[in-house]
Amino acid sequence: MTKRLSAVQVQGPHRALVTAPFRGEGLDQLRQVADVVLDPWIEHVPLRIWDGVKLAERVQDCSANILIVESDFVMGPEIMDIGLQIIGSCRGDPNNVDVAAATERGIPVLYAPGRNADGVAEITVALLFAVTRHILQADADLRAGQVFKEETIPYQRFRAWQLAGQTVGIIGLGAVGRAAAWRFAGLGMNVLSFDPFNPAASHTNLDEMLPHCQVVSMHAAPNPNTLGMMGAEQFAAMPEGSVYLNSARAGLHDLTALLEALESGHLCGAGLDHFDGEQLPPGHGLLTRSDVVLTPHIGGATYDTEVNHSLMIAADVAAILTGETPQHCVNPEVL
Question: What range does the domain containing 137 cover?
Answer without folding.
Answer: 117-294
